[in-house]
């Protein structure tokens, strides 16, 4: 040993960030479900096929898109969701931003540069 041991370097792939963000967002009070669009569904389907071929259970990432800036390493997350119509959209969106930012940072050491939340729908069913 030289006395100058290097810290191990970790690389967190975008699907892992998306799965962590999806789990955090779905646990916020007022979030009914995450919503995947056409692009999200296509990406999720391809990822699920690759993971099933590798015999790995895919983590849910529907409704979350990640963007990593290769030059700076900064991460942007975009989350599409449906809320309970009994909740205020802005308050739920802010709570999702805080929960996702905190959870991703705690789990990976990567603090997202941006967490954007798109409230696509309000579900009129009573809360469970």
TrEMBL record:
A UniProt-annotated Pfam family: Asp23
Family: Belongs to the asp23 family.
Descriptive protein name: Asp23 family, cell envelope-related function
Lineage: Bacteria, Bacillati, Actinomycetota, Actinomycetes, Pseudonocardiales
């Amino acid at each position: 040993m030289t006395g100058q041991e290097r810290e191990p370097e970790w690389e967190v792939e975008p699907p892992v960030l998306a799965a962590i963000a999806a789990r955090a967002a779905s646990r916020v009070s007022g979030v009914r479900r995450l919503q995947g669009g056409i692009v999200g569904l296509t990406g999720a389907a391809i990822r699920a096929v690759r993971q099933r071929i590798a015999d790995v259970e895919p983590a849910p990432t529907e409704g979350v898109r990640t963007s990593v800036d290769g030059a700076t390493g900064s991460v942007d997350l975009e989350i599409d969701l449906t809320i309970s119509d009994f909740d205020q959209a802005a308050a739920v969106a802010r709570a999702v931003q805080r929960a996702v930012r905190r959870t991703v940072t705690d789990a990976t050491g990567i603090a997202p540069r941006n967490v954007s939340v798109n409230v696509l729908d309000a579900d009129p069913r009573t809360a469970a």
